[in-house]
Structures are given as C-alpha cells and as structure tokens.
Write a structure and sequence with these properties.
Layout lengths: L37 H12 L6 E6 L3 H7 L3 E8 L9 E2 L13 E7 L8 H11 E12 L19 H8 L8 E6 L2 H9 L8 H4 L9 E7 L3
Parallel strand pairs: 1-2, 1-4, 2-3, 4-5
Antiparallel strand pairs: 5-7, 6-7
C-alpha cells in the first residue's frame, strides 16, 4: 500500500543564517564584555536553589563571592582556596590534587564552580574534596558540558567536558548514589549563544529557562558526604 503524506526530505526549509554565518564569535570572552555570561545564570540559579546548604564552615575557590551572596549570616567560617599565591583573597594556597596540603573534615559546604574541567586528575580531586567535608557535608559543583576553551588556562590546560552520565560516574566512586543529585540546564539555542559569547541580557527568560536534556550547557551536582 502506498503511504501518503510522508515528508519530502528533499524539500527542507532553508536556514536563514543571519549573524551566525561567520567564523568569529560575537565575543571571545564568554560574553563578559556584553553583560552576564550565560553559564553564570545557571550557576547562580543552582546555588540559589541550594542556598540552604551554604552554611557553617564553607570553602570556595578563588574568591568568596557565592559564599557571601547565598550563605550570608549562615556562614560562620569562610575559606578561599587557590593554587595561585598572587591571589590575595585566598586563605589557603594549595593544589586540590595534593592530599597532604588540604585540611581534613573541616567544611560543612564546598562550592566548586567550573573548576574540575581544568584539573587533569579530577578523580583525586573529588576524593580530596570528599575528605575535606565534615560528615553530612555538602558539595555544590558545576561542570561545563558545552564551552569554549578556557581562556585563562588555554588549550593545554582545559581537559574535560561532562554529561549527566559522566558526572554520576565520576562522583559515585566517592559519594554514594543515593547522596547524589545531578541536574542539567540549557538547550540547543542557549548552547549556540554561549559559544558565540552572547550575554544573558540579550536573551529572553523563556529561552533561558527551557531545558532540553539532550543539549545541556552545564551539569550541576549536589553531593552529600555519608555519615
């Protein structure tokens, strides 16, 4: 029997390329020069959704921006870790891969945003983060799924991109499965905009808040250390 009303694959709607048909992005700096980078929108959304976890003794990387913003008076002790000794905001100078240089069972919450992808040995890093947490301590971690090469570390220092599956795989080696919550944010349009360097201010909220699990921009992990 002859099938009717099948789409003719030869008759595809022509793409209107507009500003996309070029080989240079709108911004090479994540959109900082145009406004707020898109990944920051999701990072801050994730931290806001889990702000109740940011309390007690808290560790953040490079600065304490999110500790202050989302922890506020709930934070009794705030540490900043950096490998770079020129960072005057840091209270601890250490390599996250170096177990001996890191405190043990000190923190109720660790905020680790957009960091693991520029560390070659992420497995040791996650193990050390687990070790630094107090019992029932919580890690709030964000990972890139789609991104340009990191402009600070460069092509020799940007190692990884993650999916929901890979995030679950690497974290469950140290955190038990029932203590892991993993979610993704983004969609194909948002991915393209972020690579182009378009800012949050140039995109509608409906576009930002539509999530397509097959096109994640960012992966967010909430992991609790077992008792």
């Amino acid at each position: 029997m002859k099938q009717k009303n099948l789409p003719d694959k030869r008759k595809k709607r022509r793409i209107q390329w507009g500003d996309l048909r070029k080989i240079i992005p709108v911004s090479r700096n994540y959109g900082f020069d145009r406004g707020t980078p898109i990944d920051r929108y999701y990072i801050e959304k994730f931290l806001k959704e889990n702000k109740a976890d940011i309390k007690g003794s808290v560790l953040e990387i490079q600065n304490r921006r999110y500790t202050r913003r989302f922890g506020g008076r709930k934070v009794s002790c705030s540490d900043v870790l950096d490998i770079d000794r020129s960072n005057k905001l840091a209270t601890i100078y250490a390599d996250l891969r170096n177990t001996n240089a890191l405190p043990k069972e000190r923190y109720d919450c660790i905020i680790l945003t957009q960091t693991l992808h520029i560390i070659d040995n992420y497995d040791v890093t996650i193990k050390n983060i687990y070790r630094m947490l107090n019992k029932n301590g919580i890690l709030l971690c964000t990972l890139p799924s789609v991104s340009r090469i990191d402009y600070l570390t460069g092509e020799e220092g940007d190692f990884w991109r993650f999916t929901k599956a890979s995030a679950r795989y690497i974290f469950k080696k140290h955190f038990t499965k029932d203590k892991l919550q993993i979610q993704t944010y983004g969609n194909v349009f948002i991915d393209i905009c972020f690579l182009e360097g378009v800012s949050v201010e140039e995109i509608d909220s409906e576009e930002l808040d539509y999530y397509d699990k097959y096109f994640p921009l960012i992966v967010c992990v909430r992991a609790v250390k077992r008792r």
